[in-house]
Design goal:
The complex is a heterodimer. Chain A is α+β, with helices and mostly antiparallel strands. Chain A is built from eight helices and 14 strands. Chain A folds into two domains: 158 residues, Chloramphenicol Acetyltransferase (2-Layer Sandwich), CATH 3.30.559.10; 195 residues, Chloramphenicol Acetyltransferase (2-Layer Sandwich). Chain B contains three helices and no strands. Chain B is an all-alpha fold. Classes of the chains: A alpha+beta, B mainly alpha.
Chain lengths: 394, 86
Amino acid sequence: MTETYRRRLSFSERLYLASLRRDGQGIVVQYLLEGEGRLEKNVLEDAIRTASRANPGSRLILKGHLGRSYWEAKGAVPPVRTIQWDRNAPLPIECQRYLDPRQGPTVEILWTDEPNTRIVFRALHSVMDGGGLFLFIEDIFRALRKEPLKGAASELNDSEFLEKVVGERYRKPLAFDFPPLFAEMPSGGPDVHEARYQRTLAQKPQAVAAKIAVGITNALGQGRTLRFMIPTDVRNYKRDVRSTGNLSYPLFLDVRPGETVEEVQKMMFKSLVGKDMLFMDPAEKKGLWIPMIILRRLVDLLYFYQRYFRKGFCSVFISHASLPGGEVLSCPGFRHRSLGYLPARFKMAALAISSINVGFNHDLVVFGNQNFLSEAQLAQVVSLVSKTLDEIPA
Amino acid sequence: MDRSEAVKKIIGLLEEEFPTLSDMDLKADTALLSSGLLDSFAMVTVLSLVESAFGVSVDVNTLELSLFESPATISEVAIDKKYHKA
């Protein structure tokens, strides 16, 4: 490791950057932590400062240009902002400010001044994926409990990590040929709408992604094969690498009508142990030299293609994460109750399902851009997915 | 290494890697997958733990999900040569 943490910008991180707009739209990873008890702001700030030293990926700012771009840990410690947020409303747009990659902060924390504190963790996807943000959050809570931190100081980016695990290998370009789940697309606004479903289960749910994929294909797929994109945390392949970087690779799962959960789970297992998703983007090297202004246009073009030709690179996006238990997100005076994904304002998200279970608490969020999904369609998916989870004993 | 030693070693590895399992009093036949204690994403970690702790290279084409059901079945992957690359 160099004296100051540095990580080379990968092509996928450049694509995430290309999604950003000054009004706050773009791919930002956001988690909402709710608990019982009050966590004082100054106590939280102290813990974040401590955790940030062990997790330099939390204070990155962008340096350099094109293929010589890199992240450097010279930004400020993630700030904690007090927000006003009605418990019955989605996170207000004004709370989802633009995170400037060159000026920072690229990670920030929102805090509500209430007897039962709510905390939102926000990170540019370009600097962290969901798994990376979990590592940082876990260390914040270790700091709050005065436990030794684990830290995440690896400077490997996603393509360097992949080279270490499977060598340099490239996948075919992503085909934009899969229809969205719903044939009729509404003309809504540019923002995302969401529905949440929380449940405490008597046991840890099993095969969640497979159950959701099969349930949706059979009930809403109208006899079509649907393609599900499931990001998988590739840290599992090399546990000695602790990094907050973007170490998720998409597993594409084509589910045919009538396939069973067991068949789909088997297919996923084979892909996971066979490392089927560990391929670099074909543009990994040359793409680093495409000017950002052109990449931004490309993102816009893909959006219009998806919107008007009704085809994308997957029908549904499913992410599933599992954390050991609520105690990892608790500290004196504050007890974890739930951890859920908060959709960011990203216009290409046609239909996405986020499932997180922490111990026995399950948090499910279904969301989609209003241009791709109506409220009624959203309700249909939520009802179906929640039925799938209802089969698990409470 | 005999089977019972291998099972003991597997249980130790699982408890160390997955903190929640350390409170479960894991036995050789504790159901890991069907109980939801571990999911198929975690199997990737289990597989790399087995490979590094037992110094073997597993042939993934020989694997079935059911082999990760319990510490006893995982120990078969660790010590039975039919699951290893030649």
